[in-house]
């Protein structure tokens, strides 16, 4: 596995590749990321006899963090990340410095549409999806992948990227990887490391709240009667009672994340974000 830091070295490393599969990350990797890496490897091996390459990027992207968020304290575990990537089928790690990726202030930015990017995460983290779309678009231009793998854990992010690729006619296939969960059901996340032992034991309650809302949606769809607002409010209140501060627990259409108000035959997803102590967790479940 090669580790490169600047664009010229990356282009040299990737030159011989007949096919490129890309996994963008911010490092501090866990099993969920490694499964995305394995998917990238499998896709390359399936599609090319040899000569295909997998690339992972490790870059903590300042543009997607708000002023009061955890950019400075976001865990940086570069050496361990590289060892894990190598053991999981990565050929090239691209780990640019801020100067390599943003040699001058990034004044050209990608602004995703408000109806997709200013809701849910975007409503609570203003500018987040501008930061994500800008860095992902830039990384796509640099790596020039044929396919890229993103986790469904960041469901809205995956939708924003898919939309960007489609609208900008980027010749990249986007593959969504399933969320990896701990044994108790907590979705794996780099931010789980911020939780105290007591909070870690409590953290699974977010996925339990989502399961409850998903079950209410399924039952309501079968019965032909579903008060979505009441079911969402009940799920939020259950978390509040346990000491959480929920931002949203909501039932949406998978297709565009628009709200539903009653029974629906369309594919749905429940999404949630809530603070436990100082840690903000997100999760989702397709219904
Ligand atoms: O999901 C992440 O880790 C980041 O948002 C991404 C896609 C690497 C962009 O910085």
From TrEMBL:
Miscellaneous comment: The reaction proceeds by a bi uni uni bi ping pong mechanism.
NCBIfam families noted in UniProt: panC
InterPro entries per UniProt: Pantoate_ligase, Pantoate_ligase_C, Rossmann-like_a/b/a_fold
Swiss-Prot/TrEMBL GO biological process terms: pantothenate biosynthetic process
Binding site for beta-alanine: 64
GO cellular component, one term: cytosol
Reaction(s) the record says it catalyses: (R)-pantoate + beta-alanine + ATP = (R)-pantothenate + AMP + diphosphate + H(+)
Protein's name in the database: Pantothenate synthetase
Domain of life: Bacteria
Compartments (UniProt record): Cytoplasm
Role, per record: Catalyzes the condensation of pantoate with beta-alanine in an ATP-dependent reaction via a pantoyl-adenylate intermediate.
Keyword line: ATP-binding, Cytoplasm, Ligase, Nucleotide-binding, Pantothenate biosynthesis
EC number: 6.3.2.1
Name of one Pfam family that matches: Pantoate_ligase
Native source species: Limnohabitans curvus
Principal location listed in the UniProt entry: cytoplasm
Subunit relationships: Homodimer.
Family stated for the protein in its record: Belongs to the pantothenate synthetase family.
Functional pathway: Cofactor biosynthesis; (R)-pantothenate biosynthesis; (R)-pantothenate from (R)-pantoate and beta-alanine: step 1/1
Active-site annotation: 33
Molecular functions (GO terms): ATP binding; pantoate-beta-alanine ligase activity
List of residues binding ATP: 26-33, 151-154, 188-191
Originating gene: panC
